């Protein structure tokens, strides 16, 4: 059963750019700002005190499953 929130194409792209930005994060004020705010609301990224957005563990997992199309690692 599908139980993950749907990501629009623009938000999937923002998630991928966020991953590509790495520890530097994405600055505020870019065209993908509304998507970053939406991703933050879903727990996939967080806005740091300096205003830049960075991936959370949930965002990294979502990137792995939706962008890279990889299954989640199995943990015992």
Pick out its properties.
76 residues, mainly alpha, Arc Repressor Mutant, subunit A, two-stranded antiparallel sheet
Structural description of this entry:
This protein has 76 residues and is mainly alpha-helical. It has one domain (9-67): Arc Repressor Mutant, subunit A (Orthogonal Bundle). Helix content is 43%, strand content 8%. It contains three helices and two strands, in the order H-H-E-E-H. It has helices at residues 9-21, 33-41, 57-67, and strands at 45-47, 53-55. It has a two-stranded antiparallel ribbon with strand order 1-2. Helix 1 (9-21) packs across helix 2 (33-41) and helix 1 packs across helix 3 (57-67). The relative contact order is 0.19. The model has no long low-confidence stretch (mean pLDDT 89).
The neighbouring-strand order within the major sheet is 1-2
Q: Give the overall form.
A: globular
Instruction: Specify the CATH class.
Output: Mainly Alpha
On the 0 to 100 scale, the average pLDDT is 89
**Number of E-type strands:** 2
Instruction: Tell me the distance between the termini.
Output: 22 Å
Helix content: 40-55%
Rounded to an integer in angstroms, the radius of gyration calculated over CA atoms is 12 Å
Largest sheet: 2 strands, antiparallel
Q: What would CATH call the architecture?
A: Orthogonal Bundle
Uncertain parts: none
CATH fold field value: Arc Repressor Mutant, subunit A
Beta-strand proportion: 5-15%
